[in-house]
Amino acid sequence: MLKKLLFPLASSLLPASLAHALPGPAGGPQSLAVGYYEFPPYIYTDDDGSTQGEGAELIRKLLRQAGYRAELRALPSARLYQGLRDGSVQLWAGAPGKPELAESTLECEHILGQVTLNLYRLASQPAPSLPQGLAGSRVILISGYSYWRPATQLLDDPRLNLEVHRTSTHSAALQMLLRERGDYLLDYQAPVEEARNAAGLPPLAYDTLYRLPLKLIVSRRTPDAEQLRQRLDQAFEQLNAKGEKVELN
After folding, report:
1. Distance (Å, whole) CA 42 – CA 248
2. pLDDT tens digits for 196-230?
3. 237 pairs with which residues across the strands?
4. What are the UniProt keywords, alphabetically (predicted)?
């Protein structure tokens, strides 16, 4: 009788987001180590050290619905992938199908959005004929980012003899291109547009190399990894059924 009285009372004291979430692990929401690399405006580290952006809020919402709590940490891509392999990173919202992560991760079913990789150039420059038109060119890259084919094929093709220049921020990369310290900038559209608009720079010409879907990706080293994947997929479906936004713009 006492249990029947206490359980509804305890449920009524929970925040609404947790009261309607999937049953969490015993003892309250479990923390999950969530890795990301800086990708403004979707997910980025603010000046005060907090993780901000639409992507960060979506991750928090999905984990909260599934009965977990996100501990977000910014990492360069190489360390993030190693963390997924050794379990120090338990979850990542990123591109599925990476061969180097196939044996170390489980991919959730639902797509959260997509990212676009472009090859930027000054508006005064004609579009290159790919790939031969890039031969001998200077290409600007962002340090800590990873790329998929056909981008890696272009960068690694010895016949093109590309001169690669790296910089740490999208703003610096744009300035390098505008000052003609490189012929092309290989970068993702969302952070480039964020940096360009913030600096009040004119639009750039570009060619789109590919578009990639984004999914939640679970490290197999995470305890009960398969159960976690199922809970995250169910959380997506529950929120979607309630009409809540579960995809990035």
Report:
1. 8
2. 999 999 999 999 999 999 999 999 999 999 999 99
3. none
4. Signal
